[in-house]
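hiii, so i know i said id send this last week but things got crazy w the move. better late than never?? heres the sequnce for the chain we talked about at the cafe, plus the structure i predicted for it. fair warning i was half asleep when i ran it
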Amino acid sequence: MKIFREKQARRQRAGSHKGLIQNKRSLSESDPFKNSVYCNGLDIEIDGLTDCLEVRSTGETVETEFGPIKMTSVLQRKLKRERWRFDWTKAEGENLFALHVKGEDIIQGLISFSHEQGFTRVFLVEPNPINVSHEGKYKGIGGHLFAIACYESKNHGNDGIVTMTAKTKLVDHYAKTLGAHSLGAKENMAIDELAAQKLIDKYIRKQYNIYR
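okay and structure toks below
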């Protein structure tokens, strides 16, 4: 299975990282819940954790590809015609990744994030409109996008730890589906090492034959 770019070498870090949940120092120093352009919180619904993506109408599993993408004004105009909700040219985060079905050019989902010291901060997540609701074409987009963030967090030396700000109504939903925990204000959530590894194993490790 192809990943669009070669895997990053994991950074050598001095000392042991105790994890986001146990060690709050990196949180307070880096402000992992700072406001973004879209500061009302993530509102993507996780419609189930699937083995890769699943065709909703048939239950067939399809393979995927993912990798970094550069958002241009031309691409944003295309997304707008396809009725994507957000202006991705304004999305914060140093990294913008796109999810595709293997061999297809159609973007099935987008996620933006930045790597901080000890964690990776997710700013914006959105599925292709064709995948929204329980009548969408593919099931599992949301879980796959978060798995990508966790995987890249682990590659970057952050142990898979991901932080995010959720809409209040989805706090319990993210806790149940992603294994996320609230930190301080309940909308401020984190996916810890164990929950991250479950997502990586579910969406990426099996499919991409990654054994580490």
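btw The longest helix spans residues 193-208. thought thatd interest u
miss u guys!!
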